[in-house]
Amino acid sequence: MALRPHFQKLVERVRRGPPLAAAVVYPCDRESLQMALSGAFAGYLNPTLVGPEARIRDVAGKSGLDISRLPVIDCADDAPRAAGERAAALARSGHVAALIKGSLSNEDLLGPVADAASGLRTERRLSHAFFLDLPGQPRGLLLADAHMNVTPNLAAKRDIVQNTIQLAIALGISTPNVALLAAMDGPAPAFPSTADAVALKAMAMQGMFRGAVVEGPLAPDSALSAETALARGIKSEVAGHVDVLIGPSMESALMVLRTMLAMGGGLAAGIVLGARIPIVAPGRHDSMEVRMASCVLASLVMAAAAEATPVPVDVTGSPLANDAGARVAA
C-alpha cells in the first residue's frame, strides 16, 4: 500500500485509533475469512464472524486458515438473510460498529439495514462512494454513486451528495469541492441530468450542503482540469481542485470509474453510506488490498462519528461509562 500515497495517509490515521469492531456477515468463502484475519493482524479490525458456524469452520479448514481466535456468532439457519438480520441486530445493540459483506448478496446484507424496524436507518437513503487513489492526481477523489442507485431522482441525488460530503469530511477534507458531473458544462435540454445539477447547485446556494462547495453541471474533463474549464470560459472554484465527483446515474459514474482505472490504474475502495453505521460491500473479484482499504474508510467514518457525539457526563462533570461504546472500541 506504500505505492498509494493518498490512501497511505488514511492508513496512518487509522493506525492511531482502536481497531474497528465489525461483523463479517456470512463469511463462507476464503476471501472473507482472509480479510477478517488480515484486518485483525494489521490492527484495523476487531472482527466478529456472523453466520452458520459449522460451514464457516469447514471453509476455514479447507482453506488452511486458522480462525480459532476470532469470535463466531452462529446462525442456526444457514440462510444468508438470517446472517444479515443477526448482524443488523448486533449493530443496533452496539456490539459492532460496521458491517462487512461476506459471501451473500447485497440484498441479504442491506435489506435488514434498510428495514424500518432495524434502528439503523437515517433520514437519508443508502448510497455508495468510491475512494480513488489514481497515479498523477494531486489528491484522492471520491466518486458517487457507481454501485447502488441506478437512476436516482433529484431527492436521491440530494442524499447521495450529502452522504458523500459527510464521507469527505470524515476523511479529513475540511471543505470538500464537489462537482456535479454531466455531459455538458451547463444546462442543456437534451440532457435532463443537467437540470438536476442546476437544482442541486441551487440547494447548495441555499445552504443545504453546509461545509462544501458544490458546482455543476460540469463535464468530467472540466471538473478535473482548471485549464480546460478556463478554455471553455467557465469560472469555477471546483474545476481542477475537485474532491468529490457526483455522477448523474450509476451507469455514468461507473463509466467514469472504469475509464480512470483503465487509463492509469490505481486503487478504488468503496463504502455504503447513509445508515447509522458504515457498510463494506466488496465485489466478488475485489483484491485483498481493495477490501482492506474499504475497511479503512469504514473505520474513519466511525471515528468521525464518535468525535461528533458528545460524551455524556454525570452531575459532577465526570464522563459516564458507556457499555455499548466500550464494546465497539474493544
Topology at a glance:
Elements: H1 5-15, E1 20-25, H2 30-42, E2 45-51, H3 53-63, E3 72-74, H4 80-93, E4 98-101, H5 106-114, E5 127-133, E6 141-144, H6 154-170, E7 177-181, H7 192-205, E8 213-218, H8 220-224, H9 226-231, E9 244-246, H10 250-264, E10 267-273, E11 279-280, H11 288-308, H12 323-329
Parallel strand pairs: 1-2, 1-4, 2-3, 4-11, 6-9, 7-8, 7-9
Antiparallel strand pairs: 5-6, 5-10
Helix pairs in contact: 1-11, 2-11, 4-5
Structure description:
The protein has 330 residues and is α/β, with parallel strands linked by helices. 43% of the residues lie in helices and 16% in strands. The chain is built from 12 helices and 11 strands. The protein has a 6-stranded mixed sheet, with helices on both faces. α7 links the parallel β7 and β8. α1 packs across α11 and α4 packs parallel to α5. The C terminus is likely disordered.
